[in-house]
Specification:
This protein is an alpha/beta fold. Helices cover 30% and strands 16% of the residues.
């Protein structure tokens, strides 16, 4: 295996162009087909909207908004012809993406025009979901919620959200607080929470770190999915492409260290092969080299950290030779990279959600933060790592809490977040199934949450959730949890039809607030989930209604957004609140013009690191399973969008293909392309195998996001859901999902 694969800049730039420019999903059909045959307008010779052949006047407008296809919150500019959205481009005035847009952003039209969208509220009758009126559906939900409070069981309400940011998430927390339930379990239970928890532990900021790519000369990406897993993919692609067009000191050198030659490696200047889960060991080895040569920022270390001598003693064992054994990176390369990081400052090490998908994710993050601190790259101006900045929005009034809410709020959480088991976790999704198997909640509300597909051991989740007497789903699509379990469906608008804030994750080191607004009239009888939650609160009455005094969600948003105007330091300045809000909604974005100011941080340098753990007996299950989020459909949310299904998950892959990648030495008995059985102690599935010489032997890599049993015609029945193989449970301390921690074996196919 070539452990140090150097790539030409020309190839790297070509690869970046697929994301940073106008992303043409070029595998679209070449001939035009009528809308009934091609509902998404995949044909290139016609606009991307059904019914376009009926246009007569060509009346055209452009609307600014923010993308919701991933957490980045990029600004978008939507072309609207005769009331139909026909094209999505990046908004050049948004500082996050400056006109760039990724494939997920472009595919937003396919969310709007999905032929399998839920077109109105539904109620389950005789085992089947059937259409209902909004009055009937919301009245039924309010009836069950009122009964729960009257019976003194407010704490038996469970709210599961697939989102972790923004005012909608805050609204659900507010509703639960006034209602009397501590059980709001949101997206903070995923891998991004590991980064946020480590940031809070190290620097006191519960947010994903920001990185100044544009100001750096040298970046080491450790097991990071720069163009796949990262919510900074568009920003990275834009900055990297700009920097590669420069020369000399203006050119950023990017070194990608990872287990496989993926899109991130393809677009780097250099690829270092790395054993999965060993990124923290490499970081500590680099720390040792910097300390041994006295090549570290002594001013930063003195001002920002404590425990230097204990840290020095702890990393002493991470010699280049030991690091080579732990990581697969040659010992001389370890020393070389340490020198290059120091000599080419400003420089930093970068990690994202993929980097911490192992049992040692928290320790890896802390090790990388220590490395960046030694480099003087934490809160130090250009080319470094920064704490996230929050937009100065106003607070809502305090929640009205009555005795029922107070009693329910004092009941321990179902998921164990904040306990001795998960002391730093704010939500622990993976532990919920254990609690539900013992005692199911009586009412569950699902907001962009599909646990019977997207959690470890989906079949176990199905069985546990089937015990819940009443399930409400706010999904705009019939995903697995909605189709199989929901008693009432209250379908949300798509993000092109509703008002919503767009808090980017992460931002730019300075505060940015994006806005989503309706760019078209809602196509169907759907409603904003924020409006529906407020309506339910009013129907429940009492303290719940008092805590939700607004007529609709936009009004609730405005209460907080005026805080931006009062701060008087942003890109929009007006004399009154009404004018400010009008300009904010028109422009689609606010940013803090004061810019990032270095903050004082104090970091107790870490003294521990452990190797990644893998569940299952090594003799019986000799291979280790690596799961990753592909560029297009991520963990499955975009699987119903054909443009994203046609994207290649890795260099050399085929559109719509779902295969397991293995090194040839790990599957000597397998014929490439053959469907093979992949089994773990907890499940098994069959899928084709593709050999990949430039990946770690002893591992099997499978993309997430396939294997839907529902979720529309473009997602259903394609590929497999690799989460069926994953060991149950949550990470120690963090409570986050350990995606990469299961042993498997290859065998003959079931057939």
């Amino acid at each position: 295996m070539n452990n140090d694969d150097k790539l030409s800049r020309r190839r790297a730039l070509l690869g970046l162009g697929a994301l940073g420019g106008a992303v043409a999903v070029a595998s679209c059909k070449s001939e035009w087909a009528p809308p009934e045959q091609d509902p998404f307008g995949l044909a290139r010779n016609k606009p991307y909207v059904p019914g376009a052949e009926a246009w007569s006047t060509g009346e055209e407008a452009f609307a600014t908004s923010s993308c919701a296809q991933c957490p980045a919150g990029c600004g978008i500019r939507v072309r609207v012809v005769e009331g139909r959205a026909v094209r999505i481009d990046g908004n050049k005035d948004n500082p996050l993406n400056r006109g760039g847009i990724g494939p997920r952003g472009i595919a937003g039209l396919q969310v709007l025009y999905d032929p399998d969208r839920i077109t109105g509220p539904m109620i389950r009758r005789s085992g089947k979901l059937v259409p209902a009126s909004w009055e009937e559906a919301t009245s039924l939900v309010a009836k069950h919620l009122k009964a729960l409070r009257v019976q003194g069981k407010a704490h038996r309400l469970l709210i599961m959200s697939g989102r972790e940011r923004g005012m909608m998430n805050d609204l659900f927390h507010r509703f639960a607080g006034a209602f009397g339930s501590p059980n709001v379990v949101d997206g903070r239970g995923n891998r991004s929470s590991v980064l946020a928890q480590a940031m809070e532990e190290a620097f006191g900021s519960f947010e994903i770190p920001n990185y100044d790519w544009a100001g750096a000369n040298y970046v080491l990406a450790l097991e990071a999915g720069l163009l796949e897993d990262s919510c900074q993919a568009v920003y990275f692609a834009r900055v990297a492409a700009e920097r590669k067009r420069g020369s000399g000191a203006k050119r950023t050198k990017i070194v990608s260290a990872g287990a496989a030659f993926d899109l991130s490696a393809f677009n780097a200047d250099r690829w270092l092969w790395l054993i999965p889960g060993s990124g923290g060991a490499l970081a500590l080895g680099l720390c040792r080299e910097l300390l041994a040569t006295e090549n570290y920022d002594q001013v930063a270390i003195g001002a920002q950290t404590t425990g230097l001598e204990a840290f020095r003693a702890a990393v002493e064992s991470f010699t280049p030779e030991r690091v080579a054994a732990l990581t697969g990176t040659p010992s001389d390369t370890v020393s070389k990279v340490a020198r290059q990081l120091w000599q080419n400052r400003p420089s930093f090490a970068f990690i994202d959600e993929r980097s911490v998908a192992f049992s040692n994710g928290r320790e890896t993050a802390l090790a990388v933060f220590a490395l960046n601190t030694l480099l003087g790259a934490v809160e130090a101006g250009e080319g470094g790592m920064r704490l996230a900045a929050s937009a100065p929005i106003a607070a809502w009034p305090p929640i009205a809490v009555d005795p029922l809410a107070e009693a329910g709020g004092n009941v321990p959480r179902m998921d164990g977040a904040g306990t001795a088991v998960f002391p730093r976790a704010r939500s622990v999704q993976e532990s919920l199934v254990d609690a539900m198997e013992k005692q199911a909640p009586e009412v569950a509300m699902l907001y962009y949450s599909n646990p019977t597909y997207a959690r470890h051991q989906p079949a176990r989740w199905r069985a546990a959730m089937a015990k819940i007497p009443f399930v409400v789903s706010f999904s705009p699509f019939l995903d697995e949890s909605t189709a199989e379990l929901a008693h009432v469906v209250l379908p949300d608008h798509t993000y092109l039809e509703r008002y919503e804030d767009a808090t980017p994750a992460p931002s730019l080191g300075r505060a940015v607030m994006g806005i989503r607004k309706p760019v078209v009239v809602p196509l169907y009888d759907t409603r904003s989930s924020g409006d529906v939650v407020i309506e339910l609160a009013q129907a429940i009455g009492g303290s719940v209604a008092k805590s939700m005094p607004w007529r609709n969600f936009k009004e609730a948003m405005d209460v907080r957004l005026v805080g931006l105007q009062h701060a008087d330091r942003g890109s929009i300045r007006t004399s009154n609140e009404r004018e400010f809000l009008a300009e904010l909604y028109s422009s689609g974005v606010w940013q803090d013009l004061a810019g990032p100011e270095p903050r004082t941080v104090h970091f107790a340098l870490p003294t521990t690191w452990s190797e990644a753990e893998w569940a299952g007996d090594s003799k019986q299950w000799p291979l280790k399973l690596i799961l990753y989020r592909p560029l297009g459909h991520s963990v499955g949310g975009g699987a119903n969008q054909p443009w994203l299904q046609q994207l290649r998950a890795r260099p050399g892959a085929k559109p719509w293909e779902h295969v397991a990648h293995v090194h040839p030495s790990s599957a000597a008995h397998v014929v490439e392309g053959q469907s093979i059985r992949i089994a773990s102690q907890w499940g098994d599935l069959s899928m084709p195998i593709r050999f990949e010489k430039r990946m770690s032997p002893g591992f099997v890599a499978i993309a997430l996001g396939r294997g839907h049993t529902e979720y529309g015609r473009f997602a259903k029945g394609i590929g497999v859901n690799a989460l069926e193989l994953v060991a149950p449970g949550a990470g120690k301390i963090t409570g986050a999902s350990v995606l990469c921690g299961t042993r498997v074996r290859l065998g003959a196919d079931h057939a």
